[in-house]
Amino acid sequence: MKQDDIMVIGAGPAGLSACFYADYYGLNTIIFEEKNLGGEAAEIPFVENYPGCDEKMTGKELTDRMVRQCEEKRGEIHQFEKVMEMDLQGNQKIVKTDKGEYSTKYLIIASGTHPRVLEVPGENQFRGRGVSYCAVCDGAFFKNKRVVVMGGDNRAAEVAVFLSGIASDTKLICHENKLCSENILVKSLGKHNVEVIEGMELEGIKGEVNVKSIVLSDKKTQNTKEIETDGVFFQLEGIPNCQIAKESGVKVNDEGYIIVDEKNRTNIKNVYAAGDVTDCAVKLVSTAVAHGAAAVLDIIEQNNQTS
After folding, report:
1. Which of 227, 232, 228 has its CA nearest to residue 131?
2. What is the mean pLDDT of the chain?
3. CA-to-CA distance for 63 and 42, rounded, in angstroms?
4. What is the pLDDT of residue 216?
5. Interatomic CA distance for residues 218 and 254, integer angstroms
6. What's the CATH architecture for 2-114+238-306?
7. What superfamily in CATH does domain 131-234 come from?
8. What are the pLDDT digits (tens) for 9-33?
9. Is this structure's pTM higher than 0.90?
10. Could you tell me if 96 and 75 are in contact, meaning their C-beta atoms sit under 8 angstroms apart?
11. For labelling alongside 297, which of 35, 166, 215, 266 has CA 20 to 30 A away?
């Protein structure tokens, strides 16, 4: 059984930040990431609201820099290693993966979220044939085609602006009566000729081999209309990856987000959570990075008190 000073679940901005700060204080860190490094932040088309990013930078470029910082120091990243089970009740926290068993005194859960689906007719049928959850991954397939983006926040607006540079026509469909996005992004939508349609619900996706159209329903009048499109990009609020943590005794709120205090401590001693998986209302790269730092700084303080 391998033992490290700190173990981190998830290699998004929160987990990578924790690794960076742990190294700064001379602690060895191991990170488990079952998918791609950088998490969902690596799929952000461009980063405009992160301090220091005064040039066009993609989410992948930013997270790649974070990964390099960890790999150049004490950080040990285990990519494509999935956490299967955890025992968090003792002084030593046991993490079992699909490749081994590890123990640590301190654990930081930074497992992020996964895409939310609406389960409307046609969504699953046309997945990979016009239905996508990653604009950076699939955007190039829609060059000079018509696309719609489903979502109503900053991430959806960013994706719509990104796709407007590829597609011939881009629409942003917002479920709420008003788009909830930063003013700079709202202006950018107008500048890039993205049509914003508010107060509409997606009823279904139609097509033959590939997507041909979507059916929308007006929330007020219940009237429906059909819009022709070649692609549907879902950018809805994610679902927290907290099931294993919950099964291990970590408390979550009604929406499934891990409950943390101001120092990112969970209800279990020496177990922390950081980033989008927490109940923090603000889901930004900057807050995720702050969470990772806060967790490590509290660990340092705990070590100083016991040493």
Report:
1. 232
2. 92
3. 6
4. 96
5. 28
6. 3-Layer(bba) Sandwich (3.50)
7. FAD/NAD(P)-binding domain (3.50.50.60)
8. 999 999 999 999 999 888 989 999 9
9. no
10. no
11. 35
